[in-house]
Amino acid sequence: MSEEQQPVFSIERLYVKDLSLEVPNAPQIFLDSGEPEVDMRVSTSSTKLEDGVFDVDVTVTVTAKLDGDRTMFLNEVTQSGIFRLENIPEEDVQLLLGVACPNILFPYAREAISSTITRAGFPPVLLAPINFEAMYQQSQEGNA
């Protein structure tokens, strides 16, 4: 194989596209006690920027509520990356965008969530790893 035909998978840039935190019931919520219900939602998306260059997003939303309806906090981060994928078959490109890139981005999103929640005065929220391969397979089955 010539050098031009070698597959290329590289990270061009990692960045936070969006970060938000809401503590709608502050300061009273800090005086309340109880174990919050924590809900986490994760989504991924990708956009082609130019030939062989893609922007991939992992959006993580964490909501904590007391008594089922009083929001302690709502924290959302969109961690993004620009990836170069060249000389890779199209079906493999989709797999890389749906699995490999989110696996690279998620630890950064997890750290941003934990850090932001801690800075807001709450105990850190440590998110469990995500199986992006299973998410990708479910999305492919849903599109079939």
How would you portray this structure in words?
The chain has helices spanning about 90-120, 130-144; strands spanning about 10-20, 35-50, 55-65, 70-85. Helix 1 crosses helix 2 (about 130-144). The protein contains 2 helices and 4 strands. The two termini are about 35 Å apart. It has a 4-stranded antiparallel β-sheet with strand order 1-4-3-2. It is α+β, with helices and mostly antiparallel strands and about 140 residues long. The chain is elongated, with a radius of gyration of 18 Å. It has one domain: Roll (Bacterial Protein-export protein SecB).
Output the number of helix runs: 2
| Low-pLDDT ranges | none
Bin the strand percentage: 35-45%
Number of domains: 1
Fold-level CATH name? Bacterial Protein-export protein SecB
What top-tier CATH class fits best?
A: Alpha Beta
For the sheet with most strands, the description reads: 4 strands, antiparallel
* Spatial strand order of the main sheet: 1-4-3-2
CATH hierarchy: architecture: Roll
Helix fraction?
25-40%
Please tally the β strands and state the result.
Answer: 4
Instruction: Evaluate the radius of gyration.
Output: 18 Å
Shape type: elongated
What structural class is derived from the secondary structure elements? alpha+beta
How far apart the termini lie comes to: 35 Å
CATH homologous superfamily caption: SecB-like
Order of helices and strands: EEEEHH
Give me some keywords for this one:
144 residues; alpha+beta; Bacterial Protein-export protein SecB; 2 helices; 42% strand; elongated
